[in-house]
Amino acid sequence: MGVTATITPNDQQVGRTRVTPLVLAAGAGGFVALAIGTYGRVHTPTGQGMATFGFPAVLPMKAWFTTGAFALVLVQLATALRMWGRLPFPGTMPTWFPAASLDARRLHRWSGTAAFLLTLPVAYHCLWALGFQDTTPRVLVHSILGCAFYGAFTTKMLVLRVDRLPSWTLPVVGGCLVAILTGLWLTSSLWFFTNVGFPGV
Fold first, then answer.
1. How far is CA 192 from the centre of its chain?
2. What pLDDT was estimated at residue 14?
3. What is the pLDDT averaged over residues 148-173?
4. CB contact at 8 A, 143 and 134
5. Among the ranges given (7-11, 31-35, 106-110, 130-134), the one the predictor scored with the smallest mean pLDDT
6. Residue-wise pLDDT tens digits, 55-81
7. Which of 39, 40, 59, 48 is CA-nearest to residue 131?
8. Contact, 201 vs 56, CB < 8 A?
């Protein structure tokens, strides 16, 4: 004899409670990405440079800042896997090993903050001096990914503050951020290092 599951109004309300904030967060992220892209499209590019932070020119600065952000996002990925129990390191290391004492949550939080800060001068120059461009497929993809990055970041920051979301929410949103920034690095820094010059200084 089969057993039929009954969904009560309370169960339906809990389901809506879990999904609605996620939809709103994704909508907010989409709005941010669209707003940035629209501004970059309608804004008249100034073509002006900016502070190079010790680099000889703006482009090397942007290439290395993006590389730094990409490296920190890989740290984010490793620490996230560690927090979710998917990566044994450094838990399996001897206690005397320096990395054994790393706090994965703290490292995840600060590496994410540092990565975000590194992207800000790059994004500022891209939007203010260059605008949203589509002169080549690489440039178009890079422009789209740049807008999508801040949209995905907005979504992640919002879902972090919501309880009772589906368990896959943070891994998916975090994975999207890693994938987007990887694409940004491939279409900017790697292209610069292989076509213009390495180390680019």
1. 21
2. 47
3. 91
4. yes
5. 7-11
6. 989 999 999 999 999 999 999 998 888
7. 40
8. yes
Q: Is residue 26 part of a domain?
A: yes
User: Residue 9 has what pLDDT?
Assistant: 45
Q: Which residues contact 176 (CB under 8 A, 6 or more apart)?
A: 152
Residue 191 lies in a domain: yes
- How far is it, in rounded angstroms, from Cα 134 to Cα 17? 40
Task: Tell me the C-alpha distance between 130 and 142, whole Å.
Answer: 12
- What is the count of structural domains for the chain? 1
Rounded Cα–Cα distance for residues 19 and 16 (Å): 5
* Whether the predicted model's global pTM rises above the 0.85 cut: no
| C-alpha span between 107 and 96 (Å, rounded) | 19
- Identify whether 151 is part of a domain: yes
**CA dist., res. 34 & res. 183, Å (int):** 18
* Domain ranges, residue 69: 21-195
What would the mean pLDDT of 26-51 be, rounded to a whole number? Answer: 92
| Residue 32 belongs to some domain of the structure | yes
Which of 170, 131, 127 lies closest to 152, judged by CA?
A: 170
Q: What is the structure's pLDDT at 88? A: 65
CA distances from 189 to 13, 96, 194 (A): 47, 37, 9
